[in-house]
Amino acid sequence: MSIPESLLKAMHAKRVVPFIGAGFSYFFGNPSWDTLLLSITRHSKINLSLSESDLKGKDPLQVAEALWQFYKKKHFADKVEKFKEQPSFKNIDDDVKLQGFLGSRVNQELLKEFNEIVVECVHENSKETHRKQPEIEKLKLLGDQSFQSIVTTNYDENLEREIFVGTEITFPGVGKELSLNEKGKVIYKIHGHISEPASIVLTHSQYYNFMHNFGYYKSKLYTIFATNVILMLGYGFRDINIHEIYFHFRKDYDGIINEVEKDQPKAFLVLTEHDKNSLGQYYELHKDFLHGCGITVLDEGFSDLPEFVEKLTSELSTYKERLDFDNILSKENYPQIKDAIKRALNREITVVTEHLVADYLKAISKIFTDPTSLMILAPDTEFDFTGQLPDRAGLRLLDSVEAIIREYSDTDYIEEYNEIIYYSMEFANDARYMINDFYYFPDRFKRFLNLCKLSTNLTLPNKLRSKFTEMFGDVLSYSSKEYGKCHGGAILLEEEGKNIPESVVKIYVEGRKKAVTNAVASGDRYGVSMRRKEIDWIEYFLRFDVYSSDFKKQLEGFVTDIKGYIDEGKLIISW
Fold first, then answer.
1. Does 142 or 411 have the greater pLDDT score?
2. Are residues 139 and 77 in the same domain?
3. Same domain assignment for residues 393 and 377
4. Mind listing the pLDDT tens digit for each residue in 223-235?
5. Nearest to 64 by CA among 84, 80, 50
6. Distance between CA atoms of 278 and 291, rounded to whole angstroms?
């Protein structure tokens, strides 16, 4: 199963926010919920005789809350007696007020200590030997994506140190949001940071406090959820974070979100083989539950979270590449066009099926206008790529076009084909500076002539006509035997000139005539970049019987006008 295109589209538009849970940190050697809670039970200040099986399957929030309540109950009385010895409490005569003040201060102090135990247990159970480096390298691919916001319930520093290096972070309880630059990329560590025990959110009551007493973060989260697509990574069936935060948001904005989701799902949750195995037959029911809550489950085509990240980045790369072709190629034809181009480059001149012809010709035009497209359509090509279209690649692609047009000569691909004739002329014109290619072995020029012979009526848009005229004139100018007895370009033109369709020569002549007329009218004697050899070739074309009498008269008139302008000193051309 591929990544949904709606998610790829949102990623490309920079509208995705990762919502990252404990399953992500597991690969960095950090403890799971169960491991952390079990470690807390065994801490010297708690010291409960619970086993892993005692905690298995329990609600982590409730377990954490129970541990907090147990810790508070165990140490409350001793802490009260210590506070009573402080001068600030000895001066309070009202016993009710005293108990109120003491209760509040003791709760604060005990919660601070409990959070310090949590942090201590996180550190103790975070082991370098447990790091899974190959998987981490895959997770690091997320750092290459353009996320403006990242939300996490993890306390550790993996995201800012190894994935989104240098990204600003903020978390509740220490006032960091007051100096936050929200225009840059930000990691919102909504359940606190390991460097600040007071910020830690672990228990049920701490979750409640976060959702109701930290207005900035609740408001910020709601804004992020409302304006972006949420990608949940590292959350499983038992992670109450989603229930407490995202589900609460869904409830508050249910009507608006349902309307928006007609076009774009607002949330995706990645579930892995581990989740499937843990839930057994209940798994499909759980997916139905999530779907009913507006969360699309992604669970096919990968086994774990790192494989998903690798798959996501790979398909996003392909999607971005395809966007360059979306305006010219249909999505359905894209894979087949890539395959056809690959075969053409391998000299497998296999003619594509007729429904692909138009898209194939458009793709070839794209390659000739933007040679980097070749690396997208044929990334495994054998050719060395330096930014210019490799000679052999261009020749093979033009050969494939010729084979296709011969096969479908009675079909209407005039516009697409005419553009390729233009680009083949440009390809040949560039070869004038490649001595071996043009002067001795004019392979590029030969492809241009071959394609011209199959053209029934060359028409070009105005933006290409003047450039085509200049290039055609350049090729005529440089196709001269005077430059060498074995001049390949000149010999080829002598042999094949009679096969160049009238419509091709006509575009050239009309363009030259317009340029000459404008130069003479403006008094610019050097206004036309033209050589004497062009006139020689035009006179040579007059010998061919393939042209209409009307066109021959046009050629004769053009030659006469040019010679007259030269004799009168109104036009100076190169010899």
1. 142
2. no
3. yes
4. 888 889 999 999 8
5. 50
6. 19
